[in-house]
Amino acid sequence: MIRVVVGGATGKMGSIICQSILRQTDMHLVGGIVSAAGGNVGKVIASGIVTIGDDAIEKALEHADVYVDVTSAGAAKRNLPIVARSDVNAVVGTTGMSKETMDEFSSIVNQHKVSAVVTPNFSIGVNVFWKVCGTLAAALPSYDVEIVETHHSMKKDAPSGTAKRAAEIIAGTTGADKMIYGRQGLVGARGREIGIHSIRAGDVIGEHTVIFAGNKERLELTHRAHSRETFAEGCLAAIRWVSGKKDGSVHTMEEVLGLC
Ligand SMILES: NC(=O)c1ccc[n+]([C@@H]2O[C@H](COP(=O)([O-])OP(=O)(O)OC[C@H]3O[C@@H](n4cnc5c(N)ncnc54)[C@H](OP(=O)(O)O)[C@@H]3O)[C@@H](O)[C@H]2O)c1
Q1: Residue 93 buriedness (CB in 10 A; 0-12 / 13-18 / 19+)
Q2: What pLDDT, on a 0 to 100 scale, did the predictor assign at position 31?
Q3: 71: domain CATH number?
């Protein structure tokens, strides 16, 4: 039985991941972490699994094999070092963390010989989308690349982690590594750059389009998430994959899905 603690248990993602874990026969939800400010807490406390507040995590981790983080960049920055130092493996879906935060986490994972999966997107479709982005960039290296991402109006970070990863993959293939985040005013002719545009509207779960445009044609690659269940399914796969691994490394969802 894999014993799991979910950080962000009352959130849009965390609540669906908790419900999915409760349906599995090989997993046991042993804890949930939320912030004291949460409006949704009562409902989850009724299930008897949730602890609240900044000291809650150490206690919840005492009986955990895997910790899942779907909180916020600030909360994850505080929680992830505690998880690795507690010798608990992690699955991290939270986005918007700095490179410094992730480098520090990797180094603690390595010191404590635990394992982690970190991904800005758990969905199988998006992981294939990233792979295809690399293939298209290699085939169309001189084409202009623009990335447009749309998410619900409550999303805290922009651009999305998924868009940033797509841009990194394309830049790594074509060498055009200048990122332009939106445009305004007298911007002049387009250079060798990747434009990234974030739309925040309504209840959109997540949409990403990469445009590869030449002078006489353009090719567009789009992924649309229809339900947060797609992320929860990928998260379950990551929990199973990382459980019991103790290799001191941070892994990608591509590795979990065998897409490398
Ligand atoms: N990797 C993926 O596939 C994927 C997919 C979707 C979203 N995400 C990312 O997952 C994260 C969460 O997204 P969401 O839409 O679920 O956000 P959300 O609805 O705002 O939920 C955030 C959760 O984090 C909790 N939280 C906030 N501060 C905390 C703290 N200091 N300690 C513990 N818990 C804390 C909140 O608890 P309270 O309610 O008590 O404040 C809430 O349960 C975001 O970074 C998002 O980009 C990733």
Answers
A1: buried
A2: 85
A3: 3.40.50.720
